[in-house]
Amino acid sequence: MRTAAGVLLALCLWMLQPVVALAADGEALRIGPQPLGSALQSLAAQAGIQILFPAEAVAGLETPGLEGRYTPEQALRRLLAGTGLGFRATAAGSYAVGPGLESAAAAPGAAPGAQRLITVTATRTEREVIDVPASVSVVTAEEIARQHAAKPEDLLRSLPGVDLTYMSGSAAAGIPVLRGLGQSFAGTTTQSLLNGMPVEPLAITRRYLWYAVSPESIDRIEVVRGPGSVLYGPSAMGGVINVITKRGAGEPFARISAGAGSHAARGLSLSAGGTAGDFDLFLAASAHESDGFVQLTGTPPPWRDWFDYDYRDLDGRDSRERKVSARLTWWPGEATDLALGVHHFENEGAVLGGHPNYRIEQEGTLLDAALNHHFAGGQLLKAKLAYSDVSAPRRTYDYYEYLGTLEEFYHDREDEESFSAELQLDFHPLEGNTLTLGGVWWDGRWSSSEYGPDGELWGEMSHRSRTYGLFAQDEHRFDRLTLTLGGRYDIYEHYDYEAYGTAKPDADDAVFTPRAGLSYRLRDGLALYASAGTAYIPAPNSLKYRSGGMWADNPDLEPETAVSYETGLKFESLAGFLDGSAALYHTTFKDKIARGEVETGTGTKSQFQNLGETRVLGFELELNTRLGRYWQPFFNYTYTDSEITENPSDPALEGNRTANTPRHKFNIGLAYDNPELLTAQVIGRYVGERYFEDSNAGYSRADSHFLADVKLSRSFRVGAGPEWVASLAVDNVFDGTGYGFWYERLDGRSWWLELAARF
């Protein structure tokens, strides 16, 4: 322990020594004579930046192009010369192009914040966040690098309106939940996307995306809070999380990193990428192992009266994971790009520590493809495909919690596959108008098999689901006012459902989800917005038709729906020293599916019914500031009053708080970003009291907790060699106590030390 502490102290002192940074000479760029719109797209890809520009502003404009080494600002000035257009740099280095903008570079050390970037998720078109009538957060590549997150979903922990449920140790991914809607019998209330596409079967509720991606492969994450079914279909009741992966544009590079940490954790990651001719390529691979921490030394007192059996870890919940990612982008023409991506993962670990027959294995492959073509008149065509093939080939369970033996009780296997296709066209029938039309097709299958300890098949279940959807969105800009209207019609089919040798009937749902929003710029950097929208979760066959003598079928079960209203304010200073947002929202979660009872000819039976209704009233506040050149304090607060308003099957639940929804939550932090000295970040997270059951019983209550993390990194060079980065991450630095789900305790103080080289 003394040796480890000495090493860590020495590393921290060494990180604080000043270093001389090498000045950048700009990127090597080659952009031929072409329409201005496609030239800006080419610049964004080659320089690895984001450029926002209204299609109507560049329509009909040409540029002679450029070739040589340029910074992004120099290249933009060359391309925009003589067009009457200018650009404005946002605080994180993205650029907005348009008339009346001054060609100003970003302020050094600008503060992070949600309003500083471009979003494609909120409206399916590139827009500055400040002009979007929704609550949006963007986690940038810079912030991802600064956080040194162990898991990709950990990058969401500091955002307003986001809760994460953790369970089963380090082998399991956290489940993100937006705006207090919690989970549902019918499925998740938060839609997770990979490069704008769903990659998980609609027929199931298990979420594999967070197992497949690694922080090293993520370019940014966009989080849109509020109902999103109008653009993204089912499961977008609380909002949408879009993980956008790296494309590898720019000068070729290679990076290798190795790290070690608490609980005998060790890891290795490799990545490489760059531009070669008309191709951009990014590759990444990582491996991580951990002995895991001991979560439970015994059944915690709050649950002991409810859970009669001893439930404890004999040692840490070990885990092993492997991930491989690749993304290839081809530019066959100046106005066209085609991207192909693949993510493969394998992981396995203990569900309960020290139990050899209480484990899970998972593996899968996710594929996505996207074609973008810009027409001369400003129209944009997008075509996307996504495919996933994932499974839990073996999950074993023991008798320990029932009979006190570690022998295998049974094991099962789960397989899932999905395919989705999407076509979208953006065009401008009127000045200041963008009309988006699109269609989607999803198909998913799920199967599960259960086996006894001797391998004897106990039973099988399988079903499939398919969705056809059409959506339209019209966005019109009237000087300072932007009005958005949209709607989507989905047909959701359930078919080929078989449970333990019995075939069940097919079923289908049809749902229309409208949305309206407006945003008004009071002045540059200050905007008001308001929106209203709906979302839904379909009622699957597995709930309509049940197996076993204690259940009664309910073919009339309806989809769960949500109606939400929101108003807010977004602001950002021109100097970049302050930006933020405030939002007030009200959501009614209707037709919530709950377990009820029904009288039949053979007595009283259980049945899934549309019995529940939940009302959510919430407030979100986010502030990001810059003090001087390097210091960046930030703060956000979320208030969520989520109440069960109707439940005829159990009236005693009415008036209770919904499960896993803390009423108060805030994040406070300070980042220091000085490339000549040190990059550091301190984040404190407060999560208020919450319940893990709708009953709000004492055994399901988790007390409030405050946890703090510290991240340090320093870049340096040795002679003419590669750029090195040494980093130290200490999570839960004060060794606080918190719960991720039920009795599952979060880890105490832990550390991770890493050294990386970039060539």
Short description:
With 759 residues, this protein is mainly beta.
Plain-language structure description:
There is one protein chain. Helix 2 (36-47) packs antiparallel against helix 4 (72-80). By secondary structure, this protein is mostly beta strands. It is globular. The two termini are 34 Å apart.
Shape: globular
Q: Based on DSSP secondary structure assignment, what is the total number of beta strands?
A: 42
Q: Could you describe the largest sheet, including whether it forms a barrel? A: 22 strands, antiparallel, barrel
Strand percentage lies at over 45%
Calculate Rg over CA atoms. 26 Å
Key attributes of the depicted protein:
54% strand; 759 residues; disordered N terminus; mainly beta; 10 helices
